[in-house]
């Protein structure tokens, strides 16, 4: 049963916060990597992305939290299905966020994500690049406008007692206070920086070595 619904876009610190949630007992946390590890799970997400009626409790069975895409695209639906769950919104400076997105996720976007592409790439294309950014991510002003409008939408829709608005640079205290748990005696995670992402992409042959 979900305890935390992630409403945050990727490249806002979601990997670090995912690790933090799991450290605090709110794991497993569903994130985009699940599309890479289970073909059946990815196929079900594709069905949802193509307009199929989702069974959210079945699709997210076994997860205590979600973060980033693909689930963040459906944050309203998830918040309604799991009314006791907190809604987590991670915020980042818009210009910094766009630069990171363009250097990482968009740069490694598959060249072809049509029906012949693998299922996970189709899901990402439909939910992120088309569903979220309407195929206009390269238009910086448009993409940042979408990002800012999303922040406002979540803030307006979710009651203050349910919404957790968080910046990873603030560390454990505000997140733990909002979740009602103690502060662990370990450093707050820092993971999947732009350099780390690009290094992995180079090692995997997705990008040429710098």
Automatic annotation (TrEMBL):
Q: By what name is this protein known?
A: Sulfotransferase family protein
- InterPro entries xrefs: P-loop_NTPase (IPR027417), Sulfotransfer_4 (IPR040632)
| Gene3D superfamilies in UniProt | P-loop containing nucleotide triphosphate hydrolases (3.40.50.300)
Pfam family membership, one: Sulfotransfer_4
Question: What is the originating organism of this protein?
Answer: Nonomuraea helvata
């Amino acid at each position: 049963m979900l305890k935390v619904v992630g409403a945050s876009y990727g490249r806002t610190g979601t990997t670090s916060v995912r690790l933090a949630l799991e450290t605090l007992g709110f794991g497993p946390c569903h994130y985009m990597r699940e599309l890479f590890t289970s073909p059946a799970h990815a196929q079900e997400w594709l069905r949802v992305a193509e307009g199929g009626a989702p069974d959210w409790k079945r699709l997210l069975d076994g997860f205590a939290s979600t973060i980033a895409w693909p689930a963040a695209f459906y944050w309203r639906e998830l918040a309604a299905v799991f009314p006791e769950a907190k809604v987590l919104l991670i915020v980042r400076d818009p210009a910094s966020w766009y630069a990171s997105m363009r250097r990482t996720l968009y740069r490694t976007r598959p060249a072809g994500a049509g029906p012949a592409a693998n299922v996970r790439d189709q899901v990402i294309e439909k939910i992120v690049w088309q569903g979220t950014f309407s195929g206009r991510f390269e238009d910086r002003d448009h993409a940042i406008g979408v990002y800012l409008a999303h922040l406002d939408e979540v803030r307006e829709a979710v009651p203050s007692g349910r919404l957790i608005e968080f910046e990873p640079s603030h560390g454990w205290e505000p997140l733990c206070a909002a979740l009602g748990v103690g502060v662990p005696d370990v450093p707050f995670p820092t993971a999947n920086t732009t350099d780390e992402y690009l290094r992995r992409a180079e090692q995997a042959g997705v990008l040429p070595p710098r």
